[in-house]
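Sample pair:
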Amino acid sequence: MSGLRIPLEGPDGAGTEHAVNLLAPNPSPMTLDGTNTWVIGRGEEVLVVDPGPDDEAHLTRVAAHLRDRRVAAILLTHGHHDHSGGARGLAGLTGAPVRALDPRHRLGDEGLEDGDVIGLGDLELRVLGTPGHSADSLCFWLPADRAVLTGDTVLGRGTTVIAPDGDLADYLRSLDRLRATAEQVGAEALLPGHGPVLPDPIAALDGYVAHRRRRLDQIRAARESGAATPAEIVAIVYADVDRSLWPAAEMSVRAQLDYLGGA
């Protein structure tokens, strides 16, 4: 893709011709380098996707980056705090409405729904409903750059936790939809909510689907070996994973047990 730029030093400043990432300073095992705040548009009017946590320094940096440009809207891929916590603060700094699938996270009259098209001059973002990580997860297709903003549905490295407000069956269907869409439209980059840009969408999505299927097989095997509780299954299936991530792994195990009909 002409205009694809991926700095070697990390996700901050990465992006495509019409999208640039401003990395929030909230690194952790769950958020990787931090939350990616995407600014869409190069003209006088822009969109901001996922303003990140309620962090004054980050929001001030985003507002300074925008300078005299008008923010047409602040869009949320989903309502988890590390993506949405700063929305009201950034709205106060810019006067922009906040649009989200979940009405609880909106500020203004307009929400977001699967199939919506958001115009920005010659650009447009198309909304893809991708529930699974959470019930309200969305992705955004940016045709001008052949790029998909994926929120937490696909991360720049590692894999996604199925949160308590998510569902694995929905998530697998969403991955299948993204895979089919990426192939149909010729997507050339995934712009995730955490981690670096992924320049091979098909390979990334195939890897995600294969990983989920392997994990399900491993959980079946752990149960057959006698593991009865989510914690016992985590100790077997995630034995090679840093123990600080085991609570998150247990959330995913519970979602997988629900999917297998074992919870």
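Helices lie at 56-66, 81-84, 87-94, 168-185, 201-224, 230-237, 246-260.
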